[in-house]
Amino acid sequence: MRILGTLRKQVRVRAPWAPVGGVSMSFESTAVFRLSDNALSVSLEEEAVILNLSADRYFGVRGAARHLLDGLRDGMTVQAMADEMQRRYDVTPEAAHRDLEAVLPKLIAADIVTRVV
C-alpha cells in the first residue's frame, strides 16, 4: 500500500513526469530539498494546491506529500521526510524511503521542489 498521496496536475497538458518504465531515483538520506522559488503553496483541509509561477500550472497534493510541504518550505533532508512519514503514518523506514524515491523525482520535474545539497 502506498502512503504518499498523489500529485495531480490540474491543467490539460500531459504531466512532464509521466512514468517511463516505472523507474525511480535514489537519494541519499542527507540530501536536502526545499520548495522551489517558483512554487507557491496553500494548504487546504485535505489537499495542498501548489502553483508553479514560471509555468503557470497548478497541482493538487494529497496525503503524506501534503504534510511534508511545511518542512519543505525551510528545507528538509530525505531522512527527516522519512522520519516524519514514519511518525505520522506508522510505516517502516523502507516504505517511507521507497515512496519518497517515487515522488521526489515527480516534484523535481514539476519544478515544485529543488535539491539544495
What is the topological layout?
Blueprint: E1 4-9, E2 32-35, E3 39-43, E4 47-52, E5 57-63, H1 64-74, E6 76-77, H2 78-89, H3 93-109, E7 113-115
Helix pairs in contact: 2-3
How does this model look, in words?
By secondary structure, the chain is an alpha+beta fold. It has one domain (4-114): Outer Surface Protein A, domain 3. It is 34% helix and 28% strand. It has three helices and seven strands. The protein has helices spanning 64-74, 78-89, 93-109; strands spanning 4-9, 32-35, 39-43, 47-52, 57-63, 76-77, 113-115. The strands form two sheets. The protein has a four-stranded antiparallel sheet. Helix 2 crosses helix 3 (93-109). The longest helix has 17 residues, at 93-109. The radius of gyration is 13 Å and the shape is globular.
CATH architecture descriptor: Alpha-Beta Complex
Distance between the termini: 30 Å
Can you tell me the overall shape?
globular
Mean pLDDT across residues: 80
CATH classification, class level: Alpha Beta
Tell me the strand percentage band. 25-35%
Domain module count: 1
Strands of the widest sheet, in order across it, are: 1-5-4-3
| SS elements, strand count | 7
| SSE run | EEEEEHEHHE
**Structural class, judged by helices and strands?**
alpha+beta
Low-confidence stretches: 1-23
Question: Helix tally?
Answer: 3
Write a short abstract of this structure.
By secondary structure, the chain is α+β, with helices and mostly antiparallel strands. It is built from 3 helices and 7 strands, in the order E-E-E-E-E-H-E-H-H-E.
List keywords for this structure.
alpha+beta; 3 helices; 3-stranded antiparallel sheet; 117 residues; Outer Surface Protein A, domain 3; globular; 4-stranded antiparallel sheet
